[in-house]
Specification:
The protein has 276 residues and is of the alpha/beta class. The protein contains 9 helices and 10 strands. The strands form 2 sheets. It has an 8-stranded mixed beta sheet, sandwiched between helices. Strands 2-3 form a two-stranded antiparallel ribbon.
């Protein structure tokens, strides 16, 4: 259950998609002065040294390393967070979702970060726990996140991004989302998913459409065609209560990401209003 280490995948195409959506949501929420609460169910270790992780898989070489900054002016805030992470460690690194969030949050904002893996949570505390805006908890994020809603501010982003090592993670995502939404209906919920078995994604979409929640958008990037072989061919983000400008932003960005990050004729993207 706890064998997954995100360090081996840091900065890959799935991270690019997840963090671009995350940063854009937080940028939108920051337009108002009222505080934001950020909750991360599976925080990981927060920062990843690419020269170390690259010794094993170097997935970032087919992800963030392919992005030419001059070709993506709309990703200025995303790149700024990466630069800030590098300054923090003094070397080439890639921020995980907690570090992207902390970069975007203001003095009045707060973050709750949950991580169950013993080593990961210790590293996360070393990187980010000194920030008085941040609370790191060594706990099951599905349970912990539910306990933290609704936040005092009644404004916030909840990122739900388990590794899906266990088949029941798909069910726990849906159940936890519905429970949190019942307590905090105005929150923004961003759910990351991998495309490994397309039938699972089809079922996930159908269940989201039938779960009774409104205003759900889906953004997906596939770098190769779906396959029955082992491995992730794509990844997506489901956003409940998305910022009003997010859909138009992703409609422009996703074709560019497909062009740069795609690995063959099967590369594709989807930008859908899943539920009105």
């Amino acid at each position: 259950m706890l064998s997954y280490r995100h360090a081996y995948h840091a900065g890959n195409f799935a991270d690019v998609l997840k963090h671009v959506v995350q940063v854009e949501i937080l940028r939108y929420l920051s337009q108002k002065q009222k505080p934001i609460h950020y909750i991360d169910t599976h925080a990981g270790s927060g920062l990843y040294r690419l020269h170390q992780t690259g010794l094993r898989r170097a997935e970032y070489l087919d992800g963030v390393a392919r992005l030419e900054r001059s070709c993506f002016p709309e990703l200025q805030s995303y790149f700024a967070a990466i630069d800030a992470a590098g300054e923090r460690l003094g070397e080439t690194c890639y921020p995980g979702s907690p570090a992207f969030a902390i970069h975007c949050l203001r003095a009045q904002d707060r973050a709750w970060l949950f991580e169950l893996h013993n080593n990961e949570v210790n590293i996360l505390r070393q990187h980010l726990a000194a920030d008085n805006r941040v609370k790191v908890e060594h706990a099951d994020g599905f349970v912990g996140a539910l306990q933290r809603v609704p936040p005092i501010s009644r404004r916030g982003l909840i990122l739900i991004d388990p590794p899906y090592e266990l088949k029941e993670d798909y069910e726990r995502v849906l159940v936890t989302l519905q429970k949190m939404h019942k307590r905090f209906a105005t929150g923004v919920y961003a759910i990351w998913y991998p495309v490994v078995d397309r039938s699972r994604i089809v079922l996930l979409e159908r269940r989201l459409q039938a779960c009774g929640l409104g205003n759900i958008q889906l953004f997906e990037l596939s770098v190769t065609a779906d396959t029955a072989a082992r491995g992730m061919t794509g990844a997506g983000m489901v956003v409940v209560n998305p910022p009003w400008a997010l859909f138009d932003y992703m409609q422009v960005l996703l074709p560019k990401l497909k062009q740069v990050l795609g690995q063959g004729v099967g590369a594709d993207y989807r930008c859908l209003q899943l539920v009105d």
